[in-house]
Write a structure and sequence with these properties.
Shape: elongated
Number of domains: 2
Structural class: alpha+beta
Helix content: 25-40%
Number of strands: 12
Strand content: 25-35%
Distance between the termini: 74 Å
């Protein structure tokens, strides 16, 4: 015996051409709307995933810290934090003094020292910078909610005048910190002490 041929249901027609056209057009319109809604929903979900994995770097500088015992320590410090939801892949970090790039913190402090001597803020070249600590910010990863100390420099009797001069430069926004970082989706931004909102870039050069 041969199997019964497969039968397909036919669309019932009303016998009125105009009515049939309206019904067919309505079905196509509903299908297009459903497709558009699905695409829109997918776009919203994509943006939601992006928002839940987006980092946000910001810098903070300070000239003092209150210890747990209530003691105030005069200390110049800078930190970079990531209050965003996702991890930040920091590709590049730079320090600039009056718009001119300097290599590292020792270079920046030495340049401020020479400037202070030239302006007769410091008596001589024998003025000491003293001990300070600093970290290499890039390349590195900073998790969401993480923070990293960039530099710490304590004020002492020996470096007081130079420390005050550097603090004045910090308060005058003469020192600029900048970092280029990317998300896990390779979306990149540049964060700077000059602006609260990071600027989007195609990639970190």
């Amino acid at each position: 015996m041969l199997p019964d041929p497969e039968t397909r249901p036919e669309i019932h027609k009303t016998g009125h051409r105009l009515t049939d056209l309206i019904v067919g057009s309505s079905a196509i319109f509903i299908s297009v709307c459903s497709l558009a809604l699905a695409l829109h929903h997918g776009h919203i979900m994509e943006r939601l995933v992006e928002a839940n994995s987006r980092p946000f770097l910001q810098f903070d500088t300070s000239n003092g810290e209150v210890r747990a015992n209530g003691e105030l320590v005069r200390e110049l410090s800078a930190t970079v934090s990531n209050p965003g939801a996702g991890a930040a892949r920091i590709e590049r970090f730079s320090i600039a003094l009056d718009g001119h790039l300097v290599g590292h913190w020792p270079d920046a402090l030495q340049r401020l020292k020479q400037e202070a001597i030239a302006k007769h803020v410091l008596a001589s070249d024998s003025a000491t910078i003293g001990q300070f600590t600093y970290a290499s910010v890039a390349p590195s990863y900073l998790k969401g909610g993480g923070e990293q100390v960039i530099v710490r420099w304590t004020r002492t009797d020996a470096n007081g005048e130079l420390w005050d001069y550097a603090d004045a430069a910090r308060q005058g926004n003469r020192i600029t910190l900048e970092a280029c970082y990317c998300s896990i989706f390779d979306q990149c931004w540049v964060a700077s002490t000059k602006s609260f909102r990071p600027a989007a870039v195609k990639k970190c050069s």
